[in-house]
Amino acid sequence: MHQRVRHSRLLVILTALVTALTLVMPVGMARAATATVTAVAGQVLHRGSNTVTFNVANTAGSEATYTATVTGPSTLTIGAVAPITVAGEATEQFSVDVTVPHGTDPMNVTLTAKVVAGADTSTGTAVLPVKLKAGQNRTQGITGLTAINTIPSQVPTGGIDKAFDWVESTMFHSPWDGSYGAPNNIDIDLGDT
After folding, report:
1. 117-131, pLDDT tens digit by residue?
2. Among 3, 95, 136, 149, which is most exposed with the fewest C-beta within 10 angstroms?
């Protein structure tokens, strides 16, 4: 009888200990990330090629090598990033090439940088302004023009005037089958300008 009571008490104590440990560190609990990612302040994007720089701060006590990726709007072309090795409790920078299309007007663009080292993943974002350089103007469609050509449009959204309206849902494209060869003429009447 005493033997059975001792085993029961031991089982109760072990069960309480396991329960207490589970409350302190639940199964599947995420570890705190050992890095922070931030964009270098004051960066601006322009039409064409740009370089964007991020900081990676390794908050762990030992060196880590991070694989970095940067994503953003599909209209941008964003380059690849080489792996970054950061000493423990240190900060390093990495840069990525970002190409902004030439027709982009001033706006804010959000880039997301993600670094991964083993099971650790950290993400940071940068909201960067796209600004025009001196001599650049906002894009504008040409309205009120009459354009005439002898080539039919391959797409059903319209004729040659759609090549100038700056509306992304319309376009002009000569036939893909090559049935109309070069040269071709386009007559544009700009009206009273």
Report:
1. 999 999 999 999 999
2. 3
pTM of the complete model? 0.62
The CA angle 151-153-157, to the nearest 5 degrees, is 150
Single-letter amino acid code for the residue at 155: V
Query: CA 173, 178, 183, 185: dihedral to nearest 10 degrees?
Result: -40
How far is Cα 135 from Cα 138, in angstroms, rounded to an integer? 10
Contacts of 42 (CB under 8 A, 6+ apart): none
Question: From CA 147, how far away is CA 159, in angstroms rounded?
Answer: 8
Q: Tell me which residues of the chain have a pLDDT lower than 70.
A: 1-33, 141-147, 150, 155-158, 168, 183, 191-193
Phi, psi of 90 (to 5 degrees): -135, 170
